Amino acid sequence: MKTAGLKASLTSGTARFLAGRMLGLAVVLLVASFLVYGLLYLVPGGPMAFLLGNRTGTPEQIAAIRSQYRLDDPFLVRYAGWLGDALTGDLGRSLVYRQDVTDLLAARATTTLFLVVYSATLIIVGGLVAGTVGALRGGRTDTLISGVSSLLLATPPFVIGVILVIVFARGLGWFPVFGAGDGLGDRLHHLTLPAVTLAAGSAAYLARITRACVQDELGREHVETAHSRGLSPARIIRRHVLRNAAVPVTTVVGLTVAGLLAGAVVVENVFALDGIGSLFVRAIMQRDFAVVQAVVLVLVASFVLINLIVDLLYHALDPRMAR
C-alpha cells in the first residue's frame, strides 16, 4: 500500500511538473513573440521608414510592404495575424531575397544545427572529462587543466578561430577554411574548426564548474561514510560523487548549449558558413525585417525548449524537484 501510494504521488508530481513547465514555456514564447514583433514599431521613424531605409520606394512597393506587414490594421490585429501565420509555419516573405522566410531558414538550418550539435558534443565530452579528471587526479594534471581553461576563457572566439585557421588550415593544411561540406564525413571535416572555435570557451567553463562540483562532493560526509563502509572507489565516484554533481553541472550544460545558438552567429561569419547566423547578420544590414523577426523568434524558442529539456533532466536526476 505504501509503495503504491508513493508511486501515485511521484506520478502525480511528475504530471504537475510537466504541466507547469509546458504552461511556462507557452507564456514565455507568447511574451517573446510579442516583443519580437513589437521591435519593428520601436525604431525611429516607424516601420515604413525602417523597411525602406535609404531607398525611395515606388507606390507599388510601398503598397506591397504595407500589405505584407498589415500596416493599415491596428497593432494588436497585426500582431495576432502575424502570430497566427507563424504558428502555421508562415514567417513572412523576405523583401531582399523575394522568398518565403521559412524556405530561407530551412535551406540554412542544417549547417547551423550540425555546427551546434558538433560543438555541444565537444563541450559536453571535453568539459566533463577535463573537469572530472582534474578534480580526481589533482596535482600537475589539475594545474594544467586549470591553466588551459583560464587561457581559453580569456580568449575571444574569433581570435581562437583565426589561430586555428592559421595553424591547422593554412599552415598544416589539415582542414578547409570555408564551406560546410556535403555528407556526414565531409561536414565533420569542414565544420571541425568552426565547432572547436565555438566550443573552446564553453568547454573550458564547463570544465571549471565540473571540477568545482566534483571536488565539493568528494568532501561530503556521505562520501566519507561510503569509504568507511569499504565500497570500491569506482563505485563511490560513480554513484555518490558524479551523480550528485550532475545536477548543477546540468544547469551549466543547458545554458551553455542554448548560448551556442547565439555564438554561432559570430563563428558562421568568421568561417563564411551559409547558416542561419550569417543570414541573420546580412538581414540586419539589409533591413530585411521579416528575416530578423523569424531568426530571433527561432533563437528564443530554441533557448526556451533547451531549458525545458534541462528541467526534465533535473526531474530525472532528482524526482524531488518536481514536488
Automatic annotation (TrEMBL):
Keyword Transport: yes
Membrane topology listed for this record: Multi-pass membrane protein
Transmembrane segments: 21-43, 113-136, 148-168, 188-207, 245-271, 291-314
Keywords attached to this entry: Cell membrane, Membrane, Transmembrane, Transmembrane helix, Transport
Major location category of this protein: membrane
Domain ABC transmembrane type-1: 109-310
Compartment(s) of residence: Cell membrane
Top-level taxonomic group: Bacteria
Record family assignment: Belongs to the binding-protein-dependent transport system permease family.
This protein's name: ABC transporter permease
